[in-house]
Write a structure and sequence with these properties.
It is a single chain. This protein is globular. The chain is an alpha/beta fold and about 180 residues long. It starts with 6 loop residues before the first strand and ends with a helix. α1 runs parallel beside α3, α5 runs parallel beside α6 and α7 packs antiparallel against α8. β5, α6 and β6 form a beta-alpha-beta unit. The chain is about 45% helix and about 20% strand. The protein has 8 helices and 6 strands; from the N terminus they run βαβααβαβαβαβαα. It has a 6-stranded parallel β-sheet.
């Protein structure tokens, strides 16, 4: 079981330049916003990235609004771990359970997950908060990562795993959020 005080979320590259070609992007953006809201209710730190924002655009308006005042870390490497600013931000959290959301499952998310696992992190993939240009690439990326030791789960599952108990003060907020997901 993942512990809330050991969890950190990484939102990978959900940018204006990518969105039009991403499979099921309308649903994905809704899920990403719900995920960010849920993790904020649970006080789980969130790190966001962009892939070469100068050429591929900024984080979408809806996701940026959910993130609040956090400025995404811009990177040129496909793996977030290849960016020193990202690794500094991740290490500063002191957390070892990394939850990945964003795009593309089989490229930036996959490479980030594989490198994080090599570095001793526990990696969790929220399947309904990830996508790629083609559904098959998304599914194959999830399968490869599951075979490599990452945990594949869903948003609702991970929110309740981190919540643990209905007596938690965050329960009402998470319960209301999950009703939106239904």
């Amino acid at each position: 079981m993942m512990k809330r005080d050991d969890a950190v979320v990484v939102e990978v590259d959900y940018q204006d330049g990518f969105v039009p070609v991403i499979y099921n992007h309308e649903k994905l953006e809704t899920r990403l916003v719900q995920a960010i809201r849920g993790f904020r209710i649970l006080d789980v730190p969130i790190i966001a990235t962009t892939q070469y924002a100068k050429g591929l655009g900024n984080t979408t308006a809806a996701v940026a609004e959910a993130l609040g005042d956090f400025v995404p870390i811009d990177k040129r490497t496909f793996s977030c771990t290849g960016c020193p600013e990202f690794m500094e931000a991740l290490e500063a959290t002191g957390r070892k359970s990394v939850i990945l959301i964003g795009i593309e499952t089989h490229i930036c998310v996959q490479q980030t997950a594989l490198y994080l696992m090599e570095k001793g992190y526990n990696v969790y993939l929220i399947a309904d908060c990830l996508s790629a240009r083609f559904r098959e690439n998304h599914e194959r990326g999830l399968a490869r990562l599951a075979d490599s030791g990452a945990t594949v789960t869903t948003l609702e599952s991970i929110l309740f795993e981190l919540l643990v108990d209905s007596r938690d003060p965050a329960f009402r907020g998470i319960s209301d959020l999950v009703k939106e997901i239904w």
